[in-house]
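Thread: quick sanity check before group meeting

JM: Hey all, I'm pulling together slides for Thursday and realized we never actually wrote out the predicted structure for the chain we discussed last week. Dropping the sequence here so it's in one place. If anyone has concerns about the input, flag it before I start.
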Amino acid sequence: MPGTADNEHVKQRAISLVDAYVRKDGDAVAREAESIRGDTDPVASELKVFASFLTRRVQETGVVWKPADSREAVAAAVADLLPPEVEFAVVTAWEAYSVGEEEIAERYTNGDPLVRVHMLAAFCAAIGTAVYKPAELIATLRIATGLAE
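JM (edit): ok, ran it. Output follows.
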């Protein structure tokens, strides 16, 4: 099937970035983000799928998760892992995005598509660890995307 290897590569890159956030490994976050540069749209799209999946999982488990919770969790997820100006852009954009203000959120990204990728990956790490242990979260994402060995 054409594009399958590329699609698997995009999924793996998205999972690797979420994993770096879960492990709070700033060097890995920087490495993964650099590997995504220039190919942000497919990775962001995959991260949106992860975010929807994990949001449903949280709802199914009964864990209460409000927009304010997600804002705090994203801020905590990116704290000290990104350069200060990128951290600020991610947190500010997520605050707007989490309440449905996508246009405003886009403005806060300052035209940097990696800000959106960081925002979504940090959210996936934050919401995912609300219902899964770190290793379990990454394994679940691998299974959900069909990448599990």
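AS: nice. The chain has a mean pLDDT of 90. The CA atoms of residues 109 and 120 lie 12 Å apart.
JM: adding both to the slides.
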